Amino acid sequence: MTGYVYMTASQKRGTIYIGVTNDLARRVPEHKARSGPGFTARYAVTRLVWYEEHFDMRDAIRREKALKRWPRQWKIKLIEKTSPEWNELLVGIGW
After folding, report:
1. Which of 12, 38, 56, 90 would staple 86 via disulfide (CB 3.0–4.6 Å)?
2. How far is CA 36 from the centre of its chain?
3. Residue 7's CATH number
């Protein structure tokens, strides 16, 4: 089963959230709706700024756990490789 590791942010160089899902097209709008209490709603991390597709969900979960251990500056560099301005990627992937 395909899995996605993704990062959402509140703004450029703002609060970052790292998650994993099997359906990015469903999950990102859930973040945008801020449905339910939690980190996303509390910190408004609704802008998709980075994602990576894995063909095995177990690989995606391993990658998510590894990224969560990274220093913040490494995460920022990873985001800025593909989105220097931290633009919303949701529109860039056809949704």
Report:
1. 12
2. 18
3. 3.40.1440.10
60-69: buried (b, 16+ CB within 10 Å) or exposed (e) per residue?
beebbeebee
Side-chain-facing half-sphere of 8: CA atoms under 13 Å: 24
The rounded radius of gyration (Å) of the Cα atoms in the chain is 12
Residues 6+ apart with CB under 8 A from 31: 8, 17, 40, 45, 46, 48
pLDDT digits (tens, 9 = 90+) for 49-93: 999 999 999 999 999 999 999 999 999 999 999 999 999 998 755
CA 1 to chain centroid: 19
- Count: domains in the chain: 1
pTM: 0.91
Domain interval for residue 36: 3-90
Element (H, E) at 3: strand 3-9
